[in-house]
Design brief:
Blueprint: H1 55-82, H2 93-102, H3 105-120, H4 136-161, H5 163-168, H6 170-192, H7 205-209, H8 215-253, H9 265-276, H10 286-291, H11 296-348, H12 359-369, H13 375-385, H14 395-398, H15 401-405, H16 426-440, H17 442-465, H18 478-498, H19 500-504, H20 507-527, H21 535-538, H22 552-585, H23 604-616, H24 620-630, H25 635-675
Length: about 675
């Protein structure tokens, strides 16, 4: 819409063609608060200017223009926060409506549920988990229903992006191609009423990875692919030495007919690959070692080069590459956010005030960016952004938008109030003040650490004296009651001395409260002879984790572990997705020695257990040889590729841990230096 009010011609989107119009604010709009000509790439509709004397019409037009600018600025800021590319920015009213529909939590939840439904269908499809088996008509119909929902999701994204932008979006096009293949296969299964070998089911995990809630998983996948070039270089070096040693081993040991490990070049390669994981050592060496003791030099040199040098070099290279990718990713995200902030800033300044954003414009922005934020929080956020203490927020201050908008504001009932009991009568105040001093004292803390240590030693002695059989005691042990009473008194003292809010604001206090609560439930299970709930009693040793607070390095380890949980969850999702792919490809395994027959690919649950055992690489070659005996020698290639890819993922996980721990230690040292 183009509106002429003096010399101001705002460039904004109008929603008249879609029939939706944002209500204008009630307050009057000053002439100096007219929007700037810095709209986005929305379509412009030229509308004749209202009459000069029609002041109210001019006001309504200007308010509507500002509402459009507020909404577009909020979209830019959301794109910066979500790392969405700006070429997908909505370009017209229809695209805006689709964008708003796609970017809401109900749509995200629909995406997630649909993707999980497609994955869970593998529990019901052949080869299915026996108790979850469904008829072909039922699971094929469910699959078609889920795929129709995916079609609806993609059609809304196409309406938002536009056709040409849609086909240029690589991830969306991959998802579309997988969707077409899945559709054809589901229809074929439904028509034939019989299941065939469906390798493409392995691609269903793409629907989950593409969900909004799996953004961290996509970033991890991207980092893994970016780390591959140096990894492949070192891997080729590793395989090069492996081939050389395989040829040497074949010529040195094939003459020994009692040695089955090097009788052919294929066996030499396979067994040296297994030797890299140490799963068949020293078995692979013993036939040749029994014939010639000097043959051990071959295996010592091989392990020294491959296992102790190249494998550690591989970790070092991946860690260095990962650190570099992390820095470049952080820089890219920062620059992307700053670009989004600049786009939003140009939409929020007026021609009369080009040097900054007024509070009125900032408040209008926040109504779209964070609708649930109250007026007081908007004002406090504006004041926190405004470092120059003027009436306008400059671009330099606005660059801190994402950091400041994430702050949590807490109202204080009384400015000088330090404790929750300050307003109580003097006698009660002195009592609670004494309890507060007691629970904060080092003597009280170390006394509780001593109690926890004694409790742990007592549990260890009791466990050592128990024999196999039924561990459920007939009577409640007196030690259980004593220690639980001490923990209960501690809980009561801390709650009254610190106050419930301050007490529950600490993670360690929440942990203590949870363990004490479980201990009390365990006491009830013992007192009322509820044997099925005896597992609660077993949780008592968790109190020993409190001893980690004593040493600073232990605290750093635990803090690093808690910080890594979100990233480890996304990385483990990548590993699970890869196991999903291998489950679909894997064949049935039959190994009759010991309990190895349980390691099979009969259904998805058995497959995950089997593939996790392969990840641990302990005696994994037994599973591999069991599959080989039932299929062909080419199945070994499946297990070797699985091991190599798993090694990549595990190396990335180790790099995660190293990076996080090094950052944590450096951050702690820097803070100590600044405080000193």
């Amino acid at each position: 819409m183009a509106v002429s009010m003096d010399d101001d011609d705002p460039l904004i989107l109008t929603l008249d063609e879609s029939g939706s119009n944002t209500s204008a604010p009630n307050e009057e709009l000053d002439r100096e608060d007219l929007p700037n000509e810095n709209g986005g790439s929305y379509d412009i509709n030229d509308v004749s200017s209202p009459a000069t004397g029609d002041y109210h019409s001019q006001q309504r037009s200007a308010r509507h223009n500002w509402e459009m600018n507020y909404q577009e600025a909020a979209i830019y800021l959301q794109e910066g926060e979500n790392n969405d590319k700006f070429f997908t920015h909505p370009k017209n009213a229809k695209a805006l409506a689709a964008y708003l529909f796609v970017h809401n939590h109900l749509f995200y939840l629909m995406e997630l549920i649909t993707a999980l439904l497609l994955l869970l269908l593998s529990l019901c499809e052949a080869p299915a988990v026996p108790i979850l088996r469904l008829g072909i008509y039922i699971h094929a119909t469910l699959e078609l229903f889920a795929l129709v929902v995916v079609v609806f999701e993609l059609s809304m994204k196409m309406r938002w992006m536009g056709f040409y932008t849609y086909i240029r979006h690589k991830r969306t096009m991959v998802k579309t191609c997988v969707l077409l293949v899945q559709f054809v296969e589901a229809i074929v299964v439904l028509v034939r009423q019989t299941s065939h070998v469906r390798i493409t089911r392995a691609l269903r995990c793409i629907f989950l990875v593409d969900c909004r809630y799996c953004g961290a998983v996509r970033r991890n996948l991207r980092q893994i692919f970016q780390s591959l070039p140096p990894f492949i270089d070192i891997l080729l070096l590793l395989l090069f030495f492996m081939v050389i040693f395989a040829i040497l081993g074949f010529y040195l040991f094939s003459s020994n007919h009692s040695d089955p490990y090097f009788n052919t070049l294929e066996n030499s390669l396979v067994n040296l690959f297994v030797l890299l994981t140490t799963s068949n050592f020293p078995d692979v060496m013993m036939p040749s070692y029994s014939r010639n003791p000097w043959s051990c030099i071959f295996f010592i040199v091989y392990l020294s080069i491959e296992l102790y040098f190249i494998m550690n070099l591989l970790l070092a290279v991946v860690f260095d590459t990962f650190s570099d990718i992390e820095k470049r990713k952080f820089k890219s995200l920062l620059l992307h956010k700053r670009t989004a902030i600049r786009h939003a800033y140009r939409l929020l300044v007026s021609k009369q005030r080009p040097s900054g954003i007024s509070f009125k414009q900032f408040e209008g922005l926040m109504r779209f960016y964070k609708p649930r934020m109250c007026a007081r929080e908007r004002y406090l956020t504006f004041k926190a952004l405004n470092q120059s203490n003027t009436t306008l927020v400059s671009l330099k201050d606005f660059y801190n938008f994402y950091e400041v908008v994430g702050l949590k504001w807490k109202a204080s009932a009384k400015r000088n109030r330090e404790h929750w009991f300050d307003d109580l009568p003097r006698t009660a105040f002195l009592i609670f003040k004494g309890i507060n001093i007691l629970v904060k004292s080092r003597a009280f803390q170390y006394a509780m650490y001593t109690v926890v240590a004694v409790n742990g030693i007592w549990i260890l002695i009791q466990t050592f004296m128990l024999q196999g059989g039924n561990f459920f005691p007939r009577d409640v042990p007196w030690s259980y009651i004593v220690f639980l009473t001490i923990y209960g008194v501690e809980l009561l003292l801390k709650t009254t001395g610190l106050g419930p809010i301050e007490y529950l604001s600490s993670g360690w206090n929440l942990f203590d409260f949870s363990v004490t609560l479980f201990a009390f439930l365990g006491l009830l299970a013992l007192a009322f002879n509820m044997e099925p709930f005896y597992f609660i009693v077993v949780l008592r040793p968790l109190q020993l984790l409190r001893l980690f607070k004593l040493k600073k390095r232990y605290r750093n380890v635990l803090d690093t572990m808690f910080e890594l949980f979100p990233r480890m969850a996304s990385t483990s999702t990548v590993a699970d997705a890869y196991r999903w792919v291998n489950h679909t490809i894997g064949n049935k395994t039959v190994v009759e020695e010991g309990y190895y027959y349980l390691n099979n690919f009969d259904n998805i649950l058995n497959s995950f257990v089997t593939l996790f055992e392969l990840t641990v690489v302990n005696d994994w070659y037994i599973i591999m040889e069991g599959v080989t005996s039932q299929t062909s020698h080419w199945s070994r290639l499946y297990f070797m590729i699985f091991y190599i890819v798993t090694m990549v993922v595990m190396t990335i996980i180790v790099a995660f841990i190293l990076e996080a721990f090094v950052f944590r230690m450096n951050y702690t040292r820097k803070n100590q230096g600044s405080e000193g």
